[in-house]
C-alpha cells in the first residue's frame, strides 16, 4: 500500500485558507513524523519478512509497518486532516509507528529491560524499515538462554501493539509486566511452535494390492466421513488369489464417528465372507487404531 502525501503536509507551500482548530500546526507535526520515519517512496524490499522466525500474524503486522498501514495517529491524521496525532500512551509526542513500538518512554521501559544486542545509539537511531529488519533478522541469543533475539523482538513489538490497542479501545491502564509476557510467548514459540530441523525418520514405501496365498481370499474395506462425528459411509470388496473380483459392498451408516464406521464396514465384510462360505480370508485395513484394537488380547 502506498500513500501520496500532499506538499502542504510535508513542508511545502502553505495552502490557502487555514482550517480552524490549529489544523496547520497538526499537519506540520504529522509531516515531521512521517519524514523522520523515512516515508516509503521506492520499491518494497521486505522479502525477508516471510523468512523471519515468528508466527504468521506477526509477519503480517511487520509487513503493514513497512507499508505504513497500521492505524497510528500520524497516519490517520494524514488521511483525516483534523485527527489529532498525539500519542495515546504518553500524551506527549506524536504517535508514529516508531513512537508506539520504540520511542515512547512507556515503550522504552520494555526495551531497556530486555537489553537489545546492539549499541543503544544504533537501536534507537534506525529508521522504521532498518530497525525492523535488523532486529527481526538478528540471530544472536538472548542472555542466559538459547532463544534468538529476532524471536524475542518480534513478540515484543506485537505485545507493545496489543498493549497500545488495549489502552485505546478498552481504556485499560496498560500492562505493567510486558517483559514477562514477551519472554513467555517467545519461549513457548521457540520450543513448541518453531519447526526445528530434525533428521527425517520417514521412509517411502510403495502401497499396492498384493496377491493372497493360493486358495486364499482377500477382503479390503474402508470408510469415509464428512467429519468426526458426521455423516459416514463405507464399503469393501473381495478378490481371490488370481486377482479376480468376487463380491463388493457399500452402504450409508448415517451419523457416526470414523472409528465406528471402520468397524461397521469390517463387520459387513466379515458377514459377506461367511455368506460366501470363504474359510481362509486375509483382511486389509488402512486404520492402524482398528488393527491395534483387534490385536489386543482383551479386545472386545
From TrEMBL:
Which residue numbers delimit the RNase H type-1 domain? 220-296
The identity of this protein, by name, is Reverse transcriptase zinc-binding domain-containing protein
- Organism this protein belongs to: Castanea mollissima (Chinese chestnut)
Question: What does UniProt list as this organism's lineage?
Answer: Eukaryota, Viridiplantae, Streptophyta, Embryophyta, Tracheophyta
The residue ranges of the Reverse transcriptase zinc-binding domain are 46-111
Cited Pfam families = RVT_3, zf-RVT
Question: Which Gene Ontology molecular-function terms are recorded?
Answer: nucleic acid binding; RNA-DNA hybrid ribonuclease activity
Amino acid at each position: 500500500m502506498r500513500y501520496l502525501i500532499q506538499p502542504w503536509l510535508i513542508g511545502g507551500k502553505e495552502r490557502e485558507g487555514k482550517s480552524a482548530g490549529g489544523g496547520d500546526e497538526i499537519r506540520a507535526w504529522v509531516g515531521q513524523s512521517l519524514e523522520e520515519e523515512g516515508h516509503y517512496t521506492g520499491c518494497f524490499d521486505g522479502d525477508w519478512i516471510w523468512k523471519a522466525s515468528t508466527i504468521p500474524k506477526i509477519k503480517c503486522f511487520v509487513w503493514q509497518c513497512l507499508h505504513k498501514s497500521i492505524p497510528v495517529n500520524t497516519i490517520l491524521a494524514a488521511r483525516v486532516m483534523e485527527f489529532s496525532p498525539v500519542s495515546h500512551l504518553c500524551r506527549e509526542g506524536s504517535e508514529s509507528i516508531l513512537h508506539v513500538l520504540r520511542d515512547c518512554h512507556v515503550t522504552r521501559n520494555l526495551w531497556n529491560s530486555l537489553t537489545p544486542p546492539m549499541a543503544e545509539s544504533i537501536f534507537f537511531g534506525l529508521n522504521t524499515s532498518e530497525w525492523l529488519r535488523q532486529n527481526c533478522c538478528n540471530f544472536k541469543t538472548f542472555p542466559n538462554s538459547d532463544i534468538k533475539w529476532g524471536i524475542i523482538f518480534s513478540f515484543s513489538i506485537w505485545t507493545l501493539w496489543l498493549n497500545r490497542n488495549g489502552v485505546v479501545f478498552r481504556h485499560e491502564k496498560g500492562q505493567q509486566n510486558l517483559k514477562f509476557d514477551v519472554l513467555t510467548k517467545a519461549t513457548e514459540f521457540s520450543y513448541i511452535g518453531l519447526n526445528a530441523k530434525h533428521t527425517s525418520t520417514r521412509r517411502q514405501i510403495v502401497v499396492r494390492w498384493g496377491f493372497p496365498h493360493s486358495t486364499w481370499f482377500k477382503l479390503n474395506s474402508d470408510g469415509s466421513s464428512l467429519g468426526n462425528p458426521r455423516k459416514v459411509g463405507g464399503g469393501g470388496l473381495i478378490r481371490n488369489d488370481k486377482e479376480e473380483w468376487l463380491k463388493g459392498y457399500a452402504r450409508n451408516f448415517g451419523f457416526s464417528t470414523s472409528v465406528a464406521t471402520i468397524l461397521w464396514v469390517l463387520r459387513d465384510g466379515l458377514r459377506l465372507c461367511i455368506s460366501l462360505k470363504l474359510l481362509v480370508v486375509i483382511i486389509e485395513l488402512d486404520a492402524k487404531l482398528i488393527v491395534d484394537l483387534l490385536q489386543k488380547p482383551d479386545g472386545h
